[in-house]
Specification:
Layout: H1 2-23, E1 28-33, E2 35-36, E3 50-51, E4 56-63, E5 77-84, E6 88-96
Length: about 100
């Protein structure tokens, strides 16, 4: 009888641990990310990339460095870094648009 009580308690703990993981977003796969970025406009403020995807953060770096506003007659390159938040992971295959 005692062994069944121990087994029951262990099963309950494992079940609870599995539920907590799924509620907190653990192992949530990120399968698709849509990113938008406004093109540089002379004299306008520097823009950053945005997304509506949950589970990720974006950072935008401009080359050459643009401080405050964009300069005229200058070509810029945006580098967008996508980082998964805690409790999320990127799927093995997916789409970025």
């Amino acid at each position: 009888m005692k062994i069944w009580k121990i087994v029951t308690v262990l099963l309950a703990v494992l079940l609870l641990a599995g539920c907590v993981g799924s509620v907190s977003g653990a192992d949530t796969e990120i399968k698709s990310i849509s990113i938008s970025l406004t093109a540089p406009v002379t004299g306008e403020k520097v823009t950053t990339a945005t997304t509506s995807a949950s589970g990720v953060t974006l950072s935008t770096a401009w080359t050459p460095s643009a401080s405050g506003t964009f300069d005229a007659n200058q070509d810029y390159t945006a580098t967008i870094t996508v980082t998964n938040k805690s409790g999320y992971r990127f799927a093995n295959t997916g789409t970025i648009s």
